[in-house]
Amino acid sequence: MKLGLINSAWAQAGRETAYGIGMTKEIGFDTIDVFADPLDLDIKERRLIKLECDRVGLPIVSIACVAVGLIDFNPSVQRFHRKRCKDYLDLAYEYEAKNVLLVLGEYIWEQQVIPAAEQWKTGVRNLRELGDYAGGLGLQIALELEPFQLSLVNNVESMVRFLDDVNHPAVKANIDVSHLQLSQTAPEELRRLKGKAIHVHLSDCDGKVHGDLPPGRGVVNFGPYLREIKALNIDGAISIELEYSPEPERIVEWVREAYEASDRLLREANLRG
After folding, report:
1. Do 271 and 230 touch, CB atoms closer than 8 A?
2. CATH number, domain at 60?
3. What residues make up the domain containing 76?
4. CB atoms within 10 A of CB 90
């Protein structure tokens, strides 16, 4: 698998787009994931991202999208978010990416007003429509597991059930190793995602709260997870996710540390290539 970086690491440290892309390549990454909302990009920034990635030889694999409104109870909100997700898919097609990484929302009002099954059905229905659109573009949607109590998809069991209910070849799973740690998911449970997973996020955490730290700064035992990921034979990328460096002025060191630790882990697992 290729080793990539989500470019939000640079943006959250206040670094310009071209700088972040150039440094991603210089540090040694094979690919890049883009965290950018097509509704917020002006035409210059939209073009700059692709031009700079092409210039340095850094393929864009995934576009990250958070669309919690896909399971909102208001039809108008759902329509807006379906259209917004299609804009993301258009951007992924334009950037010659492979997938859109999609984050669904959470059950509202602690499941006390709207039945959880209704929000679930809403999510399934909307993902089928988006799957059709993605498939028509030759793309896929990688659904992310969020390790929070009320997240619609918050463990491997709910991921498998959701994907089975959607039952669409363009809608698959993303595996986030730190999220598995936070949801207390044993590495062996990943075997249930055989044929269902297409993308991977890699980061560390303290085992208690969402953190997205460089590997080695938290408590994750990566070896068993990476061995299970290797057995899944995913034809994709493992992308490092780093959020909100505590020292933004040292973001280059932060990213380089994450790269070196991840590269070592992937080579030990015979995953880098």
Report:
1. yes
2. 3.20.20.150
3. 2-268
4. 16
